[in-house]
Each structure stands twice: as structure tokens, then as C-alpha cells.
Amino acid sequence: MKLTKTINQTVTCLIFCHLTACANIQPWERGILAKEQMALDPYPLQTQYREHNYGSREGSNGGGSAKGGGCGCY
Amino acid sequence: MAAINQRKKKLIAHAIASLKTKTSNHQNTHSAIKASFQPVQLKALTAAALTLPGLLQSPAMAADEEVSFSYGHYQEGERKLFGAQSAFSPIEVESVQGSGKWKLTDRIKFAFNYQQDTWGGATPIATAPLGSGGNSGFNGTPGSQNTIGGATPRTNPDGTAYFDNQSNIYRGVTNTQSGVTTFSRDKFVHTLSEASPEVRKQGDFKLSYEWDDAAVDVGGGISLEDDYESRFGSLNTRWDFNQKQTTLNVGLSYTNSDTNATIDHDFTGYYSADEDYDPIQRGVGSTGKNILTGKKQDWSASLGLTQVLNKSAMIEAGLSFTRSTGYMENPYKAVSIAFIDPLAQDSCAGTIQGLQCGTIGALFEQRPDERNQWAGNLRFIQHIAPLDAALHASYRIFSDDWGITSHTFDADWVQPLGQGWSVTPRIRYYSQDQADFYTPLLTTNQGSTNNVIDPVRGPVFVDLNNPNSPNYYDDINFQFVPDGDLIGIGPFGNALLDEKGRPLSQAEIDNLSGLGNKTTPFDRNKLPKNFSSDHRLSGYGALSGGVTVTKQFAKGIALDLGFEYYTHQGSLKIGGGGEGSFADFDYWTANAALRVDLAALSYNGSSIEHAHHNHHSHGAHAPAGVMFDHMLPKAGDMMAGYRYMYSGQSGTMLNGDRAVNDATLIANGCGGNPCYLTSSSMAMHMHMLDLMYAPTDWLTLMLMPQFMDMDMEMRDLEGGSQRITNDQGNITGGNSNLGQHVTHHLQNGHETGGIGDLGMYALFKLFDDGIHHVHITTGFSAPTANVDIKLRRNHKIDGGFIHYGMQLGSGTWDFKPSVTYTGHLNDWSWGAQANGTVRMESQNESGYRLGDMFQATAWGNYAMTNWLTASVRGVYTVQGGIAGQFTGSNSDSDNPFINSDGSFTNTLKFGPMDYADSYGGKYWDVGFGLSATVPSGSLAGNRISVEYLHPVSDDVNGYQLERDGSLSATWSKAF
């Protein structure tokens, strides 16, 4: 319960700290942000492939949502 | 300033146009236009516009509707073996992926993804002192001690390692002339083992619903391997705040996995498996497998926040927690253990230098059953105006209760170059601490077995041949004088006493055929609870770098090419203290992806016309199983398609068109040799891309890359096996390494997969009057597939080439001509085709040539509705036999098998499928198919067909497994 409260406070703070810190960017000012190279992940297929390789070769894979990936027993 | 105003005008006009078409309650659009430069109205308009889904996605989004195909190759470098000869090739992985996403309605999206990895090669299974010879070469031919054929895994090499009082390892080398042993510091080396090819398949989906300022998606999927299966599901939600400048993502996911790993029947002799610690089941199934089984669950929760910082920068922050419980061991990894027996140090050669002797054994690794993992990440994206590039920089921290903390730094520079080109160099650095229980070698101060000593009566003896033997004791107090009759002479020249202290007579002692020290296995309680030598749990750093090149073509097609090099080194760890260089390795990957933006295709006005055109004048599409069935109607047209084919064999063995029993097979199925086993089932899956382009009205060019995978199961032949096993699955058939090889074939199904042969074709229009159409196809199949796939070596003998039918292509350049006739009238259409395959080389690199092929087929279609067509088809196929045979598959003196009767067999052929004359035949099939074309809407022109082919008659060359049905499915879209 206490943890939930802390998380709530953290999230709220994260959101509102940003809101106050960042300039308000109007939709028509977002031309640059809408460019392909500015996507959070411009090449998801490439990312997925690389992450799969890292995941089967490193000790700290995982986190985030379930993606499968198999045993990686080799 | 003027430019900005221009931009504003444009955006506003766009917003208004959208409002007009998508919302009905804005009656004041006219006034909005008139007063469009008034800030107040502008704000209101903007607010209205923001409520429209998809109009303003602040982060750039990939295409809404897209089909993509990708291929990747992973190639590991050689592992460091410090001079040991190894015939193993490093790990290679071939991956193929197909995915698609579609908008079902304005707010509902569906995405599907399929991927498949095939991997094979050598991998570390344990770590051992170099001096104990874990990767030592072996002598290939009995009787000649000079052939070094390669490395073989020896996890229990009977070697001795020497230790000083700081637990440093030493090796001892004895000079053969002087007999003096000198000691020097030793180092660790991985013990490698090779795997035959194995395949993993994964399918997953995601269904999402979008509101104006929120979205929810549910996803799930399954990943299948022979030895590992996992199922997963996820729920993610997205909330947009603050005019979509802030996005919050919350997700939950669950994975459930099962391990079912077959441990080689001969491996348990090297490993000390213990049912109390290792979840091993022995003697499972008809082939008596030993399997390690376990279940694992992962729950994961994640929280992410994306924030627009300014006009040209964004930030993303995330936090996730994953809790894993259950069996997390890698079932194929062992840990070497040195038993330093305090009671055996008197005979240790190293004592003169203050060293202790340890004997090396191996245990299955032991990991905790619980793992709690935290990860946090931060990503910053900045537009670099002078170059119109974007810098993506990210940092991730990970920490778990296994003691692993890792840091990842990642930076990409996405640089558009104009004309659809873009290049993205990338660098990544990763560093992790070792897990608390990681160790390259366990040491314990006890023997691998210890003599049981009674505190009062001294060493305990038992009859080792009698599991219920009572205890006996040496008469250490000399109570009796042995006389060789009533008081017999025990192993130490004294009398031998029973539990009651009575001396045994000589006759009683002579009856104890296996008298020896009573021993106990080593005490597991003196070992740590958990241990692993998996180098993924060691401390190390990894540096990788690569580049992605993308070209966006016209009509919504994009091609991505990626390359990456990765190096794992103990010395790269942050703060030093990483694992030694023996664990270093590197790999490179290359991949290519083709993306087709379906939305872009359907926005293209001309494509609708094409779809229309296709439907009417080329309704004469053939059933799904027919290739080269249609041309593109006019110059400039393109088509992208995907074709899947499955074919299977199972059931009875045939000779010609008759079923044969096992006795006949053993006697005649394998030439002059006996058959030891036969295939019980085989399945082949082919994935093909169908890329077509028409440079002129009368010519269509076609490129067809293929990816395939196959698997085969084998069975014992009744009354003919060389394999003699007990109910534990262990070989008891004497010195029969042939029998042991046969066991491997029976216990481990065979799998292969990878790139197939590449087809390149040209279709020429000969005749077309609107009803009847004739074209010919000529083309070649290039030998891009592997035809030299081998089984791993077992029992110090190479496995040899895997069966002809499991190689991935022909290995030769092939000529593939065909002629096709199609016709249509009203709701009916029909067609016929004759096609052939002619091998243009006398043999491939592996020493054989597949037979030529001829096929004739004819079909009829009936259009049941304007979008659905049903078809019936007949097919006749003549497939020639194989000429030549695998190089070295006969009389190869380096690869002899010893039969159970002591005779030799110089062949690597086990069953009919290993004989070239058991390939080819004459076949009749009948096919039933359905084909659907989306008539309208955003997916108009997408065409999906399926066809099932049922075998009517088989007339096979030699001895072959009966065919099951085959299935074809195609998707295509012309534009």
C-alpha cells in the first residue's frame, strides 16, 4: 500500500515536473517530432532482432512486456 | 516567419478538412475558415482536432497497415581453446520473420507475427582446467593412434588438477625420459559440445483498441522448440495527457515455460545426476530417454512515460519489475567440480610443491528457483537541425537478486540522406556483474566417493555385487588368527567379521564375489546450494556497433539492411574484475527486411484500378499450389506475395506402390547393408516470398527467395536393431558403438532449416484474347541453400550428412521452364500447366545430384461470390532419383562402427532415407482449394488462397515413407 502510494507520487511528480519544465508545444509545432527519424523506435524489426540476440547472450534480458524468445539454451 | 505562417495555414486547412469529414457537430467551420488566424479560434480548433484519433500522434508512428518479411543471420566466432584442435564449427543461427498489421476498423488494430530460428554449432557446456583435457583430440580409428579428428566433449575427463592453498589451479606435466613431473599455473577453458540443427518457431498476435486519448492492447503467443515451450500473454494500456505531449504506458505480462530436455543417453555417465537435485526422469518412452523437465513462470509489470520536451526533443523513461519462479537452469550446462580428497593426498604427486590433487567431475548446474529483476531505462531523442538527423541515446540499468547488476548505453544516429535513403550507425556498450553463484569450477574437500569408516570398527566392507549386502569389518584388533578354513583370510590378511563380530569362514569369504569398501557418494550438503558456469552469468562487458541502411521505394515499399558486430570480453567490464579471457567470444549479424505499407498502397489511386482490373480480366488465378500461374497485366505493375507450403510423410513404408513390413526393409531396404532404423514421419515447411515486376506488358519478372525447415522422427525396426538397452535407456549391448549411434537417432529427432534455393524467373505472354491466355516461364534456381548439413558427432564418430531429403536445396543450378494456359468465362475459370526442373550440373558440392522433375496439372475454378472462388485440381508428378551419393558416406575408414558382434560396419547409412536409390517416384494428387479477394475497403485487392492436395497414388523408387497430404497457402497484393 505504501509502495503504491510512493509510485503514485513518483509518477505524478514525473508528469507534472515535466509539464512545468517543458514548453507547451502546440500540435502545429510538432512537424519535427513527427519525422520518421524521431520515432521512439524507427526500426522496430531491427530492434527486435538485435534484442533477441542480446537476450540469448546476456545475463540480464527481460523486463518490459512478454515477447517470448524461447530457451536460448545455446 | 513567412514560412511558419505558410506552415500554419497548411496544418489548419488539413485540420478543417478532417473536421468536415469526420465530425458532424462543428457547424461553424465556415467562420473558422474566415477567422482562421485568430488565436482563440485556433486554440478551439486545435482542441477539436486533438480529439481525432490518428490526426496528431506526437511521436512518429510506423505505418498503420504493414506487411513485413525479414531474414537474419547470426554467426559466432571461434571460441578460444588454447591450442586444442576442434572440428566443431561455431554457432550459426538463421532467422526468418513475417509479420503484418491491419486496421480492422478505425479504432481496432490487429497485428500478427511469426518467426523461426534454426541454429546449430558448438557451444560451451562447461568450464574445466585446460590441463585436464576437456577438449582434447581423440583417436579416430581403433588400432591407429594417430588421427586427430577433432574435439569431443569430455566433462568428466578423469584428469587430475592441482591446487595451491589459494585455490589457484596448476597442471602437472611428466617428462617421459626423466619421469619428473613439473607443475605450472593452469588456466580455464570452455568444454565445447556440438548440437545438430534445431528449430524454434514462434507465433504471436496483438489486438488493440484506441480511444481519442488512450489505447489498450492485449497480446499473446507461443514459442515452440523440441526441448522448450513457452506461452505468453500481455496487457498494455496507453494514456495520452496534456494534448498528447505526455504519454503514459502501463503493462502487465505473463510467461509460462516448460523445459523437456533430452539428455544424451551416454551423457549421464559423465554427469553426476541426482534425482534429489536434478529433475531428471530416466527411461522415458519407447526409446528410453533421460529427460530433464521443469516449469517456469514469469510475471512482469512495466511503467513507461514519454514526454515531448520541446519542438525537437523527446524523452522516454521506463521502469519494470519481473519476478521469475521455477526451473531456470539451462539443462545442457554442467559445472566442473574438483574433488580434493584429504585422505587421498598422500599419493598426490603435487605434495612436494605444496599442491593438493583434485579429481575432476561434473554436475548439472543449479540455479535458484526464484529471481526478482528490476530494470529502469531512459531514452533521449534529439533532432539535429543542420543535418536533419536524429540522435537516440539511451541508458538502462538492471538489477536482480542473483547479484547481477548491468548497465547498458546505446546511441543511434538516424541520418536521412534524401531520395528515400537513410543510414543509422549505432553503438552499444553493456557491462554486468557476475551472479553470486557463478563459478568456473567448484572445489570441495572430499572425494567423489568416500569409504565408509565405522568409528569403532574401522573400514566397512560389503559385497558390491549384492545390493542388500550386510556390512563386514576388517579384524583391526587381531581378535582372531585366520586359518584359511573356519576363520577365513580377509582382504587385509586379517579375519573378516560380520555385524555380530563373528569371523567369516573361508567358504563364506569366497562366496562374496564383489567384496570391497563400502562407499558413499560425496556429500551434496558440503557444496553451495547454487552454482553455474554459464558465461552469461559471469562478469564481463560487451561492445557492439553496427549500421542500418534503409531505402524507401515508391509505392510504400521499404528495404532495411542491418549489420552488427558484437564482442564479449571479461576485460570490458566496468570497474574491472571480469571473467578471464577464456570466456571471450564475438559474433556478427546481418539482416534484411522488406516492408510493404498497405495503407500507402491503397491511397495510391491507380492501385484500386489495378485491383479492379485484376478481378475482372485475371479472375483466372490458379489454386494456391500452382506457381507461375499469372502475369502482371501491364507495364509498371508490381506484386508482393507470400507463399507457404507444407508437405508431410508418415505411416507405412512403400516399395514401388506396395506396403512393406520391417523384415523386408531390414533385408532389402538398405542395399547390401542391413537397415538399422527407418523414418516414421517427416514434415517440410517452405516459406517463399513472391516478388513480381512487369517492365513491359508482355514480360513479368519474378524473384522468389525461400526459407525452409524440416523435421524427421525415426523408429526402431522390429527384429533388426543393433541397439540393446535396458529400461534406463542405457546401452547394454556390449561394445556396440553402432547401437549407441542408433540410439541417438531414435531419441533425438532430426531438424534442419535455413535459406532455400533462390528462384529467378521471367514470364512471357504468348497469347491473350481476353478469355484465353497462354504464357511461358523460364528461369533458374540458384543453389543458395545448404546441402552439406551434418549430424553432430557422437561416441567419437562424425554423424555424417543428414538425409538427402533434409538438405535445404538441390545444390545445383537448375533450369525451370513451364508453360501455362488459363481461361475464364462468366463465373468459371480453368487452366493447365506443364512444368519441369532440369539439373544443370552433374553433382553438387556434397557429391550427388537430385533427379529432374516433370509435373502436369489442370484445374477448374468456380466463383461462388464476387470475392470467393473454389477450385478442384489434378496433378501428376514424375520425380527422378538421386545420382551419386554423399561424399564419404561409404567405406570411410575414418568412420567405422563396431557392431555388437565385434565386426565393423564402414557406413554412415542407417536407414532407407540414407540411400540415394530410395528417392523419387511417380505420383498422382487431387487438390481442393479456396481463394478470397478483398473486394473493397482499405484492404481491397489483398488475395488469400489455400489448397489441400490429397495423394491418390504413390509409386516410389526404392523404399520410402508414404506421403500425407500437402497444404499451400498464399497471400498476395498487386499494386
List the topology elements.
The complex is a heterodimer of chains A (74) and B (975).
Chain A: H1 2-21, H2 44-57
Chain B: H1 2-22, H2 29-34, H3 39-50, E1 66-76, E2 92-103, E3 108-129, E4 137-141, E5 144-151, E6 160-163, E7 169-174, E8 181-185, E9 188-210, E10 214-224, E11 228-241, E12 246-263, E13 280-284, E14 289-310, E15 313-326, E16 334-339, E17 356-364, E18 370-384, E19 389-400, E20 405-418, E21 421-432, E22 442-444, E23 449-451, E24 453-454, E25 458-463, E26 472-474, E27 496-497, H4 506-511, E28 515-517, E29 519-521, E30 540-552, E31 557-569, E32 585-597, H5 598-603, H6 605-617, E33 638-656, E34 658-660, H7 662-668, E35 677-696, E36 699-704, E37 706-716, H8 737-747, E38 750-755, E39 758-768, E40 772-782, E41 814-815, E42 818-825, E43 828-839, E44 848-849, E45 853-863, E46 868-879, E47 883-884, E48 897-898, E49 904-905, E50 921-933, E51 942-974
Parallel strand pairs in B: 16-22
Antiparallel strand pairs in B: 1-2, 1-32, 2-3, 3-9, 4-5, 6-7, 6-17, 7-8, 9-10, 10-11, 11-12, 12-14, 13-14, 14-15, 15-18, 16-17, 18-19, 19-20, 20-21, 21-30, 23-29, 24-25, 25-26, 25-28, 26-27, 30-31, 31-32, 33-34, 33-35, 33-51, 35-36, 35-37, 36-39, 37-38, 39-40, 40-41, 40-42, 41-43, 42-43, 43-45, ...
Helix pairs in contact in B: 1-3
Q: What is the gyration radius of chain B calculated from CA atoms?
A: 35 Å
Structural class of chain B: mainly beta
What name goes with the CATH superfamily of the largest domain in chain B?
Autotransporter beta-domain
- Uncertain spans of chain A, ≥5 residues at pLDDT below 50? none
Cα shape of chain B:
globular
- The rough form of chain A would be described as elongated
Largest interface: A-B, 52 and 118 residues
Q: Please indicate the percent range of residues of chain A in DSSP E strands (runs of 2 or more).
A: under 5%
Q: Let me know the largest β-sheet of chain B.
A: 16 strands, antiparallel, barrel
* Ends distance of chain A: 42 Å
Rg of chain A is 19 Å
Uncertain segments of chain B: 1-40, 45-61, 137-157, 603-618, 726-735, 891-895
Number of continuous helical runs of chain B? 8
Total of DSSP H or I helical runs spanning 4+ residues of chain A: 2
Widest sheet, order of strands of chain B: 1-2-3-9-10-11-12-14-15-18-19-20-21-30-31-32
What's the CATH topology name of the largest domain in chain B?
Answer: Lipocalin
- Strand portion of chain B: over 45%
